[in-house]
Design goal:
This protein is an alpha/beta fold and 526 residues long. The protein has 14 helices and 17 strands. The longest helix is centred in the middle third of the chain and has 45 residues.
């Protein structure tokens, strides 16, 4: 495909309120790919809007941001008079030992530190974190610094890619409040709570089109639900009409064929009322009927052609299946006045923790980053005999796990995913065809199955781990931040799955909407 770079990007001081971004006939595909990521896409957005960017994993959200930044060549045009800036900034390893105050201007030219401090105040964060080594900061503190640097400029249109991943609830609330008072950005996020609080428009990557609509996520989803219901009703009506036309066509064809056969030869004894002269009459009538058949077939083809694609943009989450095992004990995990402390550490990770996990419960472990959520999960796995490195910790109190417990575990770390899907299924003893079927149900395109997993997006890697967990029969499902980077449609599918099959679940998840919908209880760690 011949590609040309035709974007016009120039500085526009004072024009932020009026600037627009016009995308016209945008077509793009990666080198060596048979499928276009975008094909003849056209739309316009205002740089004064607060836009939520929504779509399935792998549909091209990050690709589009990179196209705006001029990183790839493409055909079509992207024209604007504004300047783009992108979050998150990539911090080189040598900068991680330095405080952000020393390298802020390196990642955002002409960045003024006093502006960054003002932005940090809006994020409810003390400016002293600017003077601590960046590598020693928590994920929430790093995010706040990078957002403060991002918004310290003027008139830029900001491209914000997943700002709340790996953040605890308090940090998420701070970021949500902060963004709700800002404007002039395109926000990629799968957090429905964040989108509802921060945006006034949506830019949606449907299955084969892009749409722009005013409102937040919930208003768009409600409009989409109604539109999809109408489209499905129209499609069912159309299919019935096509069925009737086909039946009529088949009847007419059979009649025409029957009469066509009577043109040649007849039995004068059995058909005494016929003569040679009848043949021409039957031939003319048959020819007329054959013409009607042809016209009817063309009509059916036109009907199908007019209606095909009616459902092509419907995003219908496919129902997943889960078959949890039933354990003979009611209590699967029991902690009583339990404390954990890493060897050599001055303070315990947590102490005097008491709780029980009963069969059928879905407990969300909640707390700030660093409070020990993942540590507790790893200790429960260790007690259950789950393969993994033994943790160098000191214990006090009681931590009991039911004997013979089968656990299906989703780790928040995806770095171990490499090689082909075939190799992964073989290593995990999974049925490859069923595994790929689940990935397809989660919206992953078949072309992805030909790639190595290290080339997958983070959202696609998450789907690999979830699919493996769904195929693993278990008494207890333990998921550690399973939804990071995963698209909102897949999140809804997994919600429905859990509510339908009601497995025993212990999980960590900062998506407030997901947690509130499926958790039967909260374990608060402080």
């Amino acid at each position: 495909m011949e590609q040309t770079y035709l974007a016009t990007i120039k500085t526009a001081k004072g024009e932020m309120d009026m600037a627009q971004i016009h995308v016209n006939n945008l077509t793009f595909s990666y080198e060596g790919s048979f499928d276009n990521v975008f094909e003849k896409v056209s739309f316009s957005i205002d740089t004064n809007w607060k836009i939520g960017f929504i779509g399935r994993n792998g549909k091209g959200k990050t690709t589009f941001l990179n196209l705006l930044l001029g990183k790839y060549q493409y055909s079509g045009t992207i024209t604007t008079s504004t300047v783009f800036d992108y979050f998150p900034y990539q911090i080189p390893e040598d900068k991680m030992r330095l405080p952000a105050a020393e390298f802020a201007e390196d990642i955002k030219p002409q960045c003024e530190l006093w502006r960054v401090i003002c932005e940090l105040e809006q994020l409810r964060e003390n400016a002293e974190i600017l003077y601590r080594p960046f590598g020693t900061l928590s994920p929430g503190e790093r995010t706040k610094i990078l957002l403060a640097i991002l918004f310290s400029g003027e008139n830029d249109f900001l491209l914000i890619d997943e700002p709340t991943n790996h953040l605890d609830q308090e940090s998420r609330e701070n970021v949500k409040m902060y963004l709700s008072f800002k404007k002039g950005f395109l926000l990629v996020s799968h957090d429905r709570d964040l989108l509802d609080a921060c945006i006034d428009h949506v830019l949606v990557l449907n299955r084969q089109s892009i749409e722009v609509q005013s409102g937040n996520f919930s208003s768009w989803w409600e409009n989409k639900r109604r539109k999809d219901q109408f489209a499905k009703a129209e499609n069912e009506k159309h299919l019935k009409e096509i069925g009737k036309l086909k039946e009529a066509s088949e009847r007419t064809t059979r009649w025409a064929d029957k009469n066509e056969r009577t043109k040649i030869g007849f039995d004068p004894v059995k058909e005494h009322d016929r003569s040679i002269a009848t043949r021409s009459y039957i031939g003319a009538k048959t020819k007329k009927m054959q013409s009607r058949v042809t016209q009817m077939e063309k009509r059916i083809e036109r009907e199908i052609e007019e209606k095909e694609g009616l459902l092509v943009d419907l995003e219908q989450p496919v129902e997943l299946k889960l078959r949890p095992l039933s354990h003979h004990k009611e209590i699967l995990v029991s902690l009583r006045e339990y404390s954990l402390q890493y060897e050599g550490a001055k303070e315990p990770v947590f102490q005097d923790l008491t709780f029980t996990l009963q069969k059928g419960e879905r407990i969300a472990i909640h707390g700030e980053n660093g409070c020990g959520k993942s540590t507790l999960i790893k200790m429960i796995l260790q007690k259950a005999g789950f393969a993994g490195k033994k943790m160098p910790v000191l214990e006090a109190g009681l931590c009991e796990v039911a004997s013979g417990l089968y656990i299906s575990y989703v780790n928040q770390d995806t770095s171990m995913l490499e090689g082909s899907i075939f190799d992964f299924c073989k290593k995990q003893n999974l049925d490859e065809s069923l595994f790929c079927a689940i990935l397809r149900q989660l919206g992953m395109e078949r072309v992805q199955f030909q790639k190595n997993m290290e080339d997958f997006s983070e959202g696609q890697k998450r789907k690999v781990l979830i699919a493996a967990s769904l195929l693993t029969p278990a008494h207890l499902y333990i998921w550690d931040e399973p939804l990071n980077y995963m698209d909102v449609f897949s999140r809804m599918q997994i919600e429905e799955l859990i509510l339908q099959y009601r497995p025993t679940l212990l999980f960590v998840e900062h998506d407030a909407a997901f947690r509130e919908k499926i958790a039967t209880g909260i374990l608060e760690l402080k």
